[in-house]
Structures
1.
Amino acid sequence: MSEVKGHEQPLLVAEHLCAWYGAAQILFDVDLEVRRGEVVALMGRNGAGKSTAIKTLMGLIERRAGQVVFMGRDISTLPAYRIATLGLGFVPEDRRIFTDLTVLENLAVGRQPARRWPDGSLAPEWSVERLFDLFPNLSEMPHRPGGKMSGGEQQMLTVARTLMGNPFLVLLDEPSEGVAPIVVEQMVHMILALKRQGVSILLSEQNLHFARLVSDRVYLLEKGHIRFTGTLAELDQLEQVKKDYLTM
Ligand SMILES: Nc1ncnc2c1ncn2[C@@H]1O[C@H](COP(=O)(O)OP(=O)(O)OP(=O)(O)O)[C@@H](O)[C@H]1O
């Protein structure tokens, strides 16, 4: 591999991330990073702060502090729509598709121009055709309104629409939450396919089995504090840590 300056830098670095809802502090000095090509899982029990961390990175929490650097650029105080145009994709937990729009129309809404890495090479670029290869279910219902799709199909459409923005990195909030086992399986395949195609992912996840299938590294959150950072294999050595901070 050629040595290109800038490759060594993590794609996303958060330092001392804090977040509040009103007077209640939810995140406490969270440090994390995602490198190019990585799938990283942010884990923890219900209420640990995973979704809040993802939203804070995306600029969606009003009262926040700390630094977030994305591809060398400080995005700590940028609004979410500006962050999205820089190539940070966000798939919310609650599948915000447009229910009146068809699958194709929903995808069109997400379209952004192709992007290049700092070294000039093309970043992963998505078209409707490529997305239909990745999500065969969606290819069977191009004209179906979002409101007439199952929860799992809507979940897939939300991911596909985010990919239409050609993101360098996708923040994926609880992909396995509240969907049928078959959809969870499809999510696993989808994440691994994205990784192969060069998309990096930070996902929030409670399910250790799911995280094990897709992620290179894990951050374990408890009450808004990072309690563990490492690989799944390293976490597996620490039974007590898993018992203390995860629902087993
Ligand atoms: N809009 C809000 N206003 C006030 N408190 C909130 C809000 N959203 C979340 N919280 C609180 O913040 C804490 C962290 O919630 P968060 O949703 O980030 O946790 P999580 O780890 O993603 O859990 P879950 O899996 O339940 O979504 C919880 O105590 C929750 O009650």
2.
Amino acid sequence: MPIAFDRCTFAYRRRRYVIDRLNLTFSTGRTVLLGPNGAGKSTLLALAASALRPGAGTVRHESTRTTAKRAQLAAYRRNVAWMPQELSVVPGLTAREQVAYAGWLKGLSRREAWERALGALRQVELGNRADEKVSSLSGGQQRRVGVAQALVHEARVLLLDEPTAGMDPRQRTVFHEALAGLPPSVHVILSTHDTADLEAVYDQVVVVDEGRVAFQGPVRAFLGHADPAAVPGRKADSAYHTLTGGNRTWDS
Ligand SMILES: Nc1ncnc2c1ncn2[C@@H]1O[C@H](COP(=O)(O)OP(=O)(O)OP(=O)(O)O)[C@@H](O)[C@H]1O
């Protein structure tokens, strides 16, 4: 079980609840999180990363919780890697230094972090840009640095918030290959608005809409919600429309 939300409630400051008594246990393997803008996907991932704390309820990875005391929380964070939607570029650092720094923060020794940083950058085809300043890389390349940061400490759960946004088609393929190359013991929960190749890349789909789970199940079951008349390339789009109950587009 990678991550479980038990009766979890969360609101930003004094605003209305983004999620309210949510029960959601993610399955093992590669899960894609879909939903309209503002549905709560980033909030769920940030709660799962322990970057946000629930107002009520718990978020668990195996026996550790995000609401635990310091030592247990550190154990939780070692097992769970998070790539937020907005990558923080550390001024002056090269790609390798930034990725190594992320690994060191997660408990790797300096030497180990430095060695593994290069390997993680190679996984996202940035090995040849390792010594360049992150600030000089393009938006899509910076997102790949973010993916490398999530990969560097070999966590058991990867939480990736729109990792392919801004990547060109070839880099999306490289990214999907990097996902496919992860050991089966590593679970991935990834949010995206990109539904191409759903069946080839992911095992499970979770559709979130207004903070509730509109669908959870294998990709094939998700595609089963498509209009039978939908052509193969439009099935995911059609299933999404059925499950979110409207005429909205992916980005509405
Ligand atoms: N820092 C914040 N302060 C106040 N409200 C926020 C904050 N971040 C998100 N929200 C609100 O919480 C709700 C869920 O937002 P969230 O970013 O989790 O959605 P999302 O599904 O990731 O959207 P997108 O697809 O656009 O990234 C939205 O109503 C949003 O306006």
